[in-house]
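Thread title: Can someone regenerate the structure for this chain?

I was given the following input by a collaborator and told the matching structure tokens would be attached. They weren't. Posting the sequence so someone can regenerate them.
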Amino acid sequence: MKNNIKIERARHNFTQAHLAALSQVSRQTINAMELGKYVPSTVLALRLSKIFGLPVNELFELEAEDWK
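Best answer:
Regenerated them for you:
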């Protein structure tokens, strides 16, 4: 799954630590998501959506291999 977390975080001038605190996860979780190594839970995806004021599908996008 592809995501735009790093882009949105930069647009909002948030550090990984600040976004982690807002979304109630560790900074390492934010880092892993940005690197594509962690797929967030539905709850976390919805939290991030609310924090950035964007629909979930503008933050996360399925890739071809996600359909297999």
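The chain is about 55% helix and 5% strand.
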